[in-house]
Specification:
Shape: rod-shaped
Distance between the termini: 115 Å
CATH class: Mainly Alpha
Largest sheet: none
Number of helices: 5
Number of strands: 0
CATH superfamily: Cytochrome c-like domain
Low-confidence stretches: none
């Protein structure tokens, strides 16, 4: 019968192993909490983004309306409904055929050979790019209820 060899003492004391096990357990708990947080964030984020986009849209619309009335209404009429020789911007024909980018360029850079000045700071005007975007947002918000005005280029009003 083989003789039993004496076992060497454990490499680490038992209290140290228990301490290490406790740290590993807490590390797993914190990882699970983080994982749950990331999943919750992933689920909630699209809704938060939609809400923020709606709020920004509403804010831009209101600010754009104020800017339009302060800077553009003299020529284009209050609420862009026409006021004489400047085009009527609240018309189906204008809003359906013009992109946001085209409106931004028209507002920022003006229209050469007409009385439409450049409003963007880059072109010597008084509006920042953000303010121009607000005016564009306001004009785009008019589209759902815009009347059909075939003579919109001449400044005709809705009848």
């Amino acid at each position: 019968m083989p003789r039993e060899r004496p076992q060497p003492p454990p490499f680490e004391p038992e209290w140290l192993e228990r301490s290490l096990d406790r740290y590993l357990t807490w590390g797993l708990v914190f990882m699970m909490v983080l994982l749950a947080g990331f999943v919750t964030y992933r689920v909630r984020e699209p809704g938060l983004r939609r809400t923020a986009a709606r709020e920004q849209q509403a804010s831009y619309n209101a600010l754009g309306h104020e800017l339009f009335n302060a800077s553009c209404a003299q020529c284009h009429g209050r609420n862009a409904t026409g006021a004489g020789s400047a085009p009527t911007l609240n018309s189906t024909q204008f809003l359906k055929t013009t992109t946001d980018e085209q409106i931004r360029v028209l507002v920022s850079g003006g229209v050469s050979g007409s009385s439409m000045p450049a409003w963007g700071l880059d072109f010597g005007g008084t509006m920042t790019d953000e303010q121009v975007r607000q005016v564009v947002t306001y004009l785009r918000a008019l589209e759902p209820k815009a009347p059909s005005i075939p003579g919109w280029r001449k400044g005709d009003s809705a009848k």
